[in-house]
Amino acid sequence: MATDYRPEGTGRAEPRNHFLPPALRVPLEGRTWREFGYLMLSLPISIVFFTFAVTTVSLGAGLLITFLGIPVLAAGLVGCRGLGALERARARGLLRLDVADPAPLRARKSGLMSWVGAVLKSGASWRHLLYAVLHFPWAVFAFCVSLTFWVSGWVLLLYPLYHWVFPVYAGQDGLQLYGDGTRRFYLDNPFELAVTSLAGLVITLATPWLMRGLVSVDRLMVAGLLGPSRLATRVVELESDRGVVVDTAAADLRRIERDLHDGAQARLVALAMDLGLAKEKLSGDALDTTAAARMVGEAHGEVKVALQELRDLARGIHPAVLTDRGLDAALSSVASRCTVPVTVEVDLPARPTPAIEGIAYFTVSELLQNVSKHARASRATVDVWRAQDRLMLQVTDDGRGGATPPVGGSAAGSAGSGLAGLTERLNAVDGILAVDSPAGGPTTITAELPWRG
């Protein structure tokens, strides 16, 4: 089953009501204060990070003429990796940015020199050092800008509440805006208080967006320099996809074995027994042609059923019509077996590779099977086309909707286990599955595969 459907009437939780409009809530949101805290902590942490990195690297470079230089340099890089772990944790807690740890150090042999060599050859170690150097000047700039605007905004916004402090305790009429040897200008009358507070409100409302722009640079630096490299990430993805392919192939083999054992094989065993009994009826002393004819007729029926089951099994492995005539004819054959009318439109300039063609066929087949069993639809459509270097598939039905997309990419324990399994198959070839299924319908499921023609 390609898609699981939720019970009717279920939907997303209603959003909470707020007294303030979104534009006025921004300075009070938790995200704003977390980002402000992140920018404030960046300066002292970056000072420690920068000082440690520059000191250890300089010391190691200066001692390279001796044996101690290389171990000192390696120790400095390891320390940078440790401080990088702190930065990833800080970004995870305050910016909600989850950056995976870089690949661990792998020494080919045991021993100090092997470990030192692994540290020096690790690209992640040098990226951590580069982060320590580059982040320090940026942290100084972001700290000064965010603190200046944030404090100035709140000070001006709340000025009408504390302006009385100046004449009582400071001996002046109010906040001094201008002053020289002969003249001073204070903000002390109601109009000036209102204008000051309004200016503070504008700065306070604009500063959160300024801080978001500042932390976006931090996000890029943390993700790009403190996380795993793109190559390492791609290797992990390929290893995961390879595991999915192996598991899928094993599951298909088990299904084929089960279908053969429970279907065609059992019928062939029954056929052999019937023919054996018929042979005894014909060759025994008491010739019973009527019973033998009946047994042969039953055996003939078993043969036809077994042949049909073998054809269905072969079609489930790889249909001959797909190999001979392509997706258009194969999908039309699948649509003809659907319980609702299906319109098939295939617009392809050429045929993709057999592997991609097979995945496309089984994707549409599973989705149409789900339409037949669960969607309660009256009609469905299948569209297949090529968009640059991608093969696009789209299955739409007018059923009850409520199809749940896969949660976290895992089929286990998920309401969308059918879609999760289909998503895993598509991910194995760099494919994408998108689900649009509001409660009440219609449901549109789009699959995207690499062309590889």
Question: Mind explaining what this structure looks like?
Answer:
The protein is α+β, with helices and mostly antiparallel strands and 453 residues long. The chain folds into 3 domains: 22-228, no CATH class; 249-317; 321-450, Histidine kinase-like ATPase, C-terminal domain (Heat Shock Protein 90, 2-Layer Sandwich). The protein has helices at residues 22-25, 30-62, 69-94, 112-121, 123-157, 159-162, 165-170, 190-225, 230-283, 289-317, 320-325, 327-336, 354-375, 417-427; strands at residues 175-179, 184-187, 342-347, 380-387, 390-397, 432-436, 443-450. A 5-stranded mixed β-sheet has the order 3-4-5-7-6, covered by helices on one side. It has a two-stranded antiparallel sheet with strand order 1-2. Strand 1 and strand 2 (184-187) form a beta hairpin. Helix 2 (30-62) crosses helix 5 (123-157), helix 2 (30-62) crosses helix 8 (190-225) and helix 12 runs parallel beside helix 13. It is elongated, with a radius of gyration of 35 Å. It starts with 21 loop residues before the first helix and ends with a strand.
Number of helices: 14
Low-pLDDT regions: 1-15, 408-417
Indicate how many domains the architecture comprises. Answer: 3
Strand order of the largest sheet: 3-4-5-7-6
Give the overall shape. elongated
Q: Average pLDDT value?
A: 78
- CA gyration radius, whole angstroms: 35 Å
Order of helices and strands: HHHHHHHEEHHHHHEHEEHEE
